[in-house]
Amino acid sequence: MTEDYVHGYTERESVRLIDQATTLTEFLHSGTAFPPGSRVLEAGCGVGAQTVTLAKNSPYARITSVDISDESLQIAAGRLASEGITNVTLERADIFDLPFRPATFDHAFVCFVLEHLSDPHEALARLRTAVKPGGTITVIEGDHGSACFHPDSSFARRVIQCLNDLQARAGGDSLIGRRLYPLLVAVGLRNVHVVPKLIYADASRPGLVEGFTRNTFTAMVEGVRQRALELGLVDIEDWERGIADLHRTAEQDGTFCYTFFKGIGTN
Length: 267
What we know:
The longest helix is centred in the C-terminal third of the chain and has 17 residues, at 206-222.
């Protein structure tokens, strides 16, 4: 995974990823558990935000979680140790150059990784090679184009577009969720099934307002402020107005809606 990670590797981004994982644990991981003794590859584990849940849901599976960033792996190791998790092995590896023999794993799991890659098809092909025939690959991705909110704001949409544009410049695709099904089919997986996971937050769901609207989505957009301004994608006044309008959707009369996509295919 040699592409530029648009969100950066800052401490703030690590906190955002953990907030996101905590808020969306049941929402994204429901139904994902692997049999005792099975070998599972998690590609692009980052700081271990999803790894903890993956390991807890499958305590008797043997999970190998890989990432390209040594710093992220160190943070992941600390998180796993603090949770007392012992069924995960962390390794530094590139998804495009996996150091495993073909058909090593029974299953593979990828969450919020393909969106950052210039060639997600090739990444899935490499993962497929690592998985045994009859095994499964589970992929979860978002789609920033699915965001809708009240009050609506052209300024808020503009700062979101800054994130989308920066991710495209880095070789990724922030709208990849909508094409997850054809990607999984094109790589040769069978019995592909994709489910949209719509998350909706309003004042009656304060946990989602805080955990998702503020601490996940808005924080994600805020994280690209410096790069967006440096590249002239937006001026400072419009940026500040857009971020303020995103925060406005988290107030008592605001709403926020976003769709993730979860796909599973058989090798």
